[in-house]
Structures are given as C-alpha cells and as structure tokens.
Amino acid sequence: MYIEIGKEYCFYGRIDQMNASTYEDFPINVTSEDMDKVVVRIAQGNHLLMNKIYYFETTAIDFKDKIHLKATKFELLSEKIIPDEDRERLMRAFYDYAPITLSALKEGIETRLNQIENEIIKAITLDIFKNYADDFYLYPAATKFHHAYISGLAYHTLTMLKLAEGFMMVYPFLNPDLMIAGIILHDVTKILEFDSYEGNEYTVQGRLVGHITLGANAIALSAKKLGYEDSEEAMLLQHIILSHHYYGNFGSPKKPNIAEALAIHFIDNIDSKIAVLGEALEEVNYGSFTEQLGVLDKEKYYKHKLTK
Q: Structure pTM?
C-alpha cells in the first residue's frame, strides 16, 4: 500500500498487535487485505479485538517522522452488512478456510435439510438450525486436528451428509430424516464451545458442559417450545446427539442403541480421521511418510505415487 500524508485510505485489515500509548490515541499493527503492514492510530477509550478483521476509514499523518493512519471510523467485519462473496473473500485472505465456497456449503446443507419429510423432525431441526446458522457457517469443527479452520464445521457437516447418502443406499433400513437431522444437529452447538470463529480457545461452557450436552438440551428446549416434548422423534434426535462420540471418555453418556445413531457415529469418525490424514499427506512429498497422527493411533502414513 503506497501511502501519502494527507490522503484518505479505506480498507479492511486484521489487528495483529495493540500497543499502549500516553498520547490521545494509541497505535495498532494491522495487516491489510493485500498483506501490507500498517500502523493505525485509534482514539483512546475505544476497545478493539485482536485477530479480528475491521473496516477502517483513515487519514495518513506524520507521527515522529513515520507515516501512521489515523482512524476516523472503524467497524468489525462481523457487524457489517456485506455480500456473502465479499465476506468470504476477506475470510480467505486472513485465515485458513474450508476448501469449498460458502454458497456451495449453504446449498448442500440446506437442500438436504429441506428434504426432511417428518413434520416433527423437520420443525425441531429448522428451529435449532436457524438460531445458529450465521455462526454455523463460520466456525471451525475443532480447535485442532480435524476441520480446524473457518467454515470447518459446515464443511464437516456437508461431507457427513454426502457420506450418509452412500450408507442409506447400501442400508435402506436407515431412516433418511433421522440421518439428515442427526448429522446437521450433531455438532451445531460447537459454536458455543469456542471463544470465536477464528480463535482456538474453549469457552468455560465448552469445557464444563460441552457440545453433546448443549445439543441434547437444545433439542429438548426446541421440542418443548414447539409442543413436541413427548414425541419419540425428539427422543431419537437426543439419543443421536448423546451417543455420537460412542465412548464416555470422549463425551458420550450413552452408546448408540438405534441404527441411525450408530451409522452417524461411524460417519463422524470416518470424516474426522480421513480429513486429518488428507491434510497430513498434503504436507509431504511422494515417497515420504507423514508425521505421527494422534487421531490415528500415532501411525505414520506413506504417500505413494498413486496418491491424488
């Protein structure tokens, strides 16, 4: 970014560092969308957040023989109303992002959600999903290991929905409505576990309660609100959420006892582990082994010449 004193500059940037100051404003280090490093001065008394993307309106000034940008206006990206494609472009510029477009994620998930035929299952699923949809499409699926990037949660969910279609073709006794709803809802409350969509810390609620209990509670609350609290459908959805990790030491208080819950557990396990393996293989050359992969019993995997 070529900057001239006295000129105005408007841009999006991520805050990398904030510095204390005794002046009427304080300096922050910002990386612009073009990866330029600039210093922006913010009036004292304002609170900004690290590692967040902001829209800045600034004027270039001389500050101790250095060019700084004095902010006349700034706004969090998350609070601006802009087209999805612009938001996605900015997210990809500053963070690791899912290997799929936001529009494809939304179409893939919401098309399948609308295929649910059971009135009760559809009503509960839509009620919960609408409450979390905005954040759902931004949050990662984990802070590390699998799908730990922007939109990772939605990408993981869509991949599971695609895998489920194969399972249902081979095993026609699996109920499509429970499969679709169970997959969409199984991790939706993970957005309550993490401090932010670009962060890597668990909230107190995430550590003490966790997404499995939060998810089961969300179903219970929605079912009660909609008048379905005594329905078998609500109970089956709760069971899928409560059992999808299978083991107690992984957070599940129940093991799967319906076919759909067992299938969703396996699909979840497949996608979380194969995704990690795929990412690890991308990091090594042909003819080499990956590092030890914790989610795969610390085994190393060989990248052969036929690997795509």
A: 0.84
Q: Is residue 172 exposed (0-12), middle (13-18) or buried (19+ Cβ within 10 Å)?
A: exposed
Q: Where are the alpha helices (DSSP H) in 137-287?
A: 152-170, 176-186, 204-208, 210-226, 232-243, 259-282
Asked if 153 and 43 sit in the same domain, the reply is no
The amino acid sitting at 130 is: K
Domain ranges, residue 275: 95-282
User: Whose CA is closest to 42, among 71, 9, 66?
Assistant: 71
pLDDT at 247 over 80: no
60 shares a domain with 203: no
pLDDT of residue 200: 66
Structure tokens at 214: 């939060």
Confidence of residue 199 (pLDDT cuts 50, 70, 90): low
Say yes or no: 152 and 243 in one domain: yes
Please check whether residue 159 is in contact with residue 271, taking contact to mean a CB–CB distance below 8 angstroms: yes
